[in-house]
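Q: A reviewer asked whether we had any structural model of the full assembly, not just the individual parts. We don't, so I'm hoping you can provide one. Inputs are below.
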Amino acid sequence: DSLAQRFTRLFAGLGRSKLTPANIEDGVREVRTALLEADVGLDVVRGFVERVKEKAVGLTRLDGVAPADQFVKVVHDELVALLGGEETRIRWNDRGPTVFMMVGLQGTGKTTTCGKLALHLRRKEGKKPLLVAADVKRPAAIEQLKVIGRQVDVPVYAEEGGRPEKICARGVAKAIETGRDVVILDTAGRLHIDAELMDELEDVKGKTNPHEIWLVVDAQVGQDAVASAREFDRRLAVTGVVLSKTDGDARAGAALSIREVTGKPIRYVGTGEKLEQIEPFVPKRVAGRILG
Amino acid sequence: LFLGRALDESLLADLERALLAGDVGPRTTTALIDEVRAAWKAKRLQRSEDVEPFLRERITERLRSGGNALVRAASGPTVILVCGVNGSGKTTSIGKLTKFLKRDGARVVLGAADTFRAAAVEQLTIWSERNGVEIVKQAQGADPAAVAFDAVTAGKARGADYVVIDTAGRLHTQTNLMQELEKIRRVVKKAVPDAPHETLLVIDATNGQNAIRQAEQFHKAVTVTGIFVTKLDGTAKGGALVAVRDTIGVPVKFVGTGEQIDDIEVFDPAAFAAALFD
Ligand SMILES: Nc1nc2c(ncn2[C@@H]2O[C@H](COP(=O)(O)OP(=O)(O)OP(=O)(O)O)[C@@H](O)[C@H]2O)c(=O)[nH]1
Ligand SMILES: Nc1nc2c(ncn2[C@@H]2O[C@H](COP(=O)(O)OP(=O)(O)OP(=O)(O)O)[C@@H](O)[C@H]2O)c(=O)[nH]1
Ligand SMILES: [Mg+2]
Ligand SMILES: [Mg+2]
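A: Here is a predicted structure for the entire assembly that you could use as a starting point for your response.
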């Protein structure tokens, strides 16, 4: 059941009487289990639960609202506050194309997200994007981006083989030359522990000075979200996160962990395989699914 | 890690952390730690250095039964249907599995039944070329069941030892796509009554507790017979596989350890359990 249902059972015997430290302990244990089941990072859960305890103990002096509902509200509000609360509008470059760089672990949805972003910026912001195929390793990655480019009616810059940072630099030059005002770099998936490939990302960043570096994260990711996000952020100073595959039933606790550990905002969520399926991130929605 | 420590609740708390950090999940972790505590209280566990081996053995034994051998057809090609959620590593795993199957000179035919995703057929074609095996494919947007059917009949006609069928990624919450997968399986059965002999569910080791939902739903739709866990070369431990095993009773058969053609291993439960504590 949802956390709210579990609290209602837990505090059922209390009627309208106050929350006490003893029964808060039980509630806190439920929150901890629920957050771990929702794939929130272990250490993030610990910190979160401490804050909820403090706020809940502060509540025992209030009367009138059923304890279970008070408790749910504390947890829910704490989640929403953590997830949201930041200005996330894109700051456009006024001296040339705005460069977006998409990075992340293998298979998280970067290439698809590049296509979705290109379509979104073309249609909703009147931009003229250029997609750059910087994945020269994965079989048919360039072809995949070219097909997507055709589907969203956005040109794709690609070279057969060669080094990603050079391809990206030439892609930006091509954008300037052809009057494109947005460049979206689709990089290959990689492990955060692959030093050489992480160096490669730094090289791409060095050569193209992206205005936005977005970490694309699979909503199904578990505890590994923390280590990987932390390392991508440490190496690149990520400016935002895109949470993909939110159309599934994964609780997406990674959203909380990543926000907590890197401090970086979630900008968009992927809501399906079609190239229209991207939406701005809404903290309340993700808070609701983490709580189940 | 636990040398020279007392066998006490703080040791158990540290073990609990290791399991949770590896995605074993709160309920399975509690069950495992309860087993340790029970053995300790019953004096079957006396020294702190015996605790981790005991726990490793409990996990290994949950994963070991059923073995990890591929199901083989009694005659004709062994048909392997590969499925799983988007981006889990299906196509790449098929590329690796093909080379693995070919070690003893087996003849393999691939079926490109992902007719939906951009450049999916091109991607599998490159893997078929790397392996020097034939691939059965149709135009983009073709009926995946028709491609699967063609691949199986072609494999049968050409005396192939294996037919491996790639399918499009799909989330288990997409009812229509799960029905499509059921249809692919039914149509494959039409071509060869015992097929698919092996239905491999590809699970990404970085997934958390949702892997359990994936396993339940895919198993309900198409009777999974083996799991291929990918991306264990990263820092994720794939701990959700313990609960997956408890839930659907299907053995893990293969492990993906990288992006290259040789990055495949037969599943070793003891090594997997040990890695949880690294
Ligand atoms: N259901 C769903 N599927 C998605 C979403 N985003 C991407 N996908 C699918 O996830 C799979 C992987 O997407 P890609 O865009 O190839 O992922 P990638 O990160 O570029 O992969 P690599 O380049 O190999 O690291 C594809 O099947 C996509 O269609 C989403 O929001 N929802
Ligand atoms: N590090 C690592 N990467 C892997 C492994 N297996 C697959 N990958 C990578 O994961 C990404 C996705 O692999 P695919 O084979 O395209 O996954 P898929 O399940 O076929 O994806 P869809 O067909 O889009 O659902 C690619 O970048 C692969 O190279 C593995 O064992 N280790
Ligand atoms: Mg890609
Ligand atoms: Mg595929």
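A: Points you may want to mention in the reply: The first helix of chain A runs from residue 3 to 10. The mean pLDDT of chain A is 92.
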